[in-house]
Amino acid sequence: MDFRTLRASELRHAPDGWHAIVALGGEKHRLWLTELPHGRSSLAVDLPFDRDFLVRSQAADRFWLALDRRPVGPPSLTLPILTRRRLILALRAVDGASEGHSYREIAQGLFGKHRIPDGGWKTHDLRSRTIRLVKTGLHLMRGGYRALLRRGRKGGGDAT
Question: Distances from the Cα of 89 to the Cαs of 83, 127, 132, 150, 151, in angstroms?
C-alpha cells in the first residue's frame, strides 16, 4: 500500500511515527505507523492484548474489508443524539475550566446568560449540571473516552 498515492488520504509525520487518515468504504480509518512503507509493500497489524483488543480488532477488520472493497457494514460508533449533545457540552465545559473560567461563566457560555440567576447561584440546578459536565469532560480527557468505544459489549462502560 502506498499512502502517498492513495486518493483521499492524509499523511503526516510526528515524533512517534506516521499518522494516516485513509478514506475508504465510506469511513475514515486512522492508522499509526512506526515507519512509512515504501512503494506497494504489505502492512501488518500489531494489536496488544488489552481491554481494548476487541475494539481494535474490529477496526482492523473494517479497514481490511474497505481495502478489499467489500461492505464494512453500519458505523460502529453511533451514539444517541442526547448522549452526543451531553458529551459535546462536557468537552466545552472542560475547555472553559482549563482556561480558568468559573462555573458561572462556563454555565453562561453553555446555556446562555439569560438562564443564569443573579442570586441563588450556589443552589441552582445549572450550577450542579455545569460541575457534572466539567467532571465528565475531565474524565473523558483522562482516558474515559475509551469507554465510548466499548459501548454495548460486556466489560464496556458507560459514556461518562
Answer: 10, 14, 10, 21, 20
Looking at the fold, whether 92 and 43 belong to one and the same domain comes out as: no
What's the pTM?
0.55
Q: What does the pLDDT profile of the chain (160 residues) look like in tens digits?
A: 666 666 667 888 899 988 888 888 778 888 888 887 777 777 788 899 988 888 888 888 888 888 888 887 766 667 788 988 999 999 999 999 999 999 999 999 999 999 998 888 999 999 999 999 999 999 999 988 888 877 655 444 444 4
Domain that holds residue 144: 81-149
What count of other Cβ atoms lies within 10 Å of the Cβ of residue 114? 6
Using DSSP bridges, classify how beta strands 17-24 and 27-33 pair: parallel, antiparallel or unpaired. antiparallel
